[in-house]
Amino acid sequence: MSSPTQRHVLSALVQNVPGVLAHISGMLASRGFNIDSLAVGATEDDALSRMTFVVVGDDRVLEQVRKQLEKIVTVVRVIDVSSRDYVERDLLLVKVQAAAGPKRAEIRELVDIFRGKIVDVGPDELMIEISGRENKVQAFVERIRPYGITELVRTGRVAMVRSDSEVALSESTKATA
């Protein structure tokens, strides 16, 4: 019996060298895996970058993607973040039509409700920044859409496994001993 289709978050620690992103995304595409979200960025080590993928599929698809990633020489480690307790964030920048007046005030109130920020103000539009879980960001997009979105960009999901409180406690105990 196969497991249900779901969204999996994978984190790959990779060598920070030219062509890694193209190599990995090309390999996944050539094997028919669709990347729902992809974010790449620096880590605490200048020699390494972290790639966070969201792929859709059952456990068999997840296992195949993980195995394919681990075969790539520039991949140092792959973690199935979604199988653990983790924190995730998505960043949205959106320009919305908002001439001065009551409409602009409504948008400002909506931004406050979602704990966002207005990061740029033009004569007829606002640029808004929202960050949080993917479902929060998507909910904001749906609420702001009727006002007239003129441009929208999202980072894709980034995620980090939470510290294991028992491991963290034992490490802090060792440090004080």
From TrEMBL:
It holds the Pfam family ACT_AHAS_ss. GO terms for molecular function: acetolactate synthase activity. Residues 9-83 form the ACT domain. Pathway: Amino-acid biosynthesis; L-valine biosynthesis; L-valine from pyruvate: step 1/4; Amino-acid biosynthesis; L-isoleucine biosynthesis; L-isoleucine from 2-oxobutanoate: step 1/4. Its EC number is 2.2.1.6. It comes from the Bacteria. It catalyses: 2 pyruvate + H(+) = (2S)-2-acetolactate + CO2. Keywords: Amino-acid biosynthesis, Branched-chain amino acid biosynthesis, Transferase. InterPro entries: Acetalactate_synth_ssu, Acetolactate_synth/TF_NikR_C, Acetolactate_synth_ssu_C, ACT-like_dom_sf, ACT_dom, AHAS_ACT, AHAS_small-like_ACT. Belongs to the acetolactate synthase small subunit family. Dimer of large and small chains. This is Acetolactate synthase small subunit.
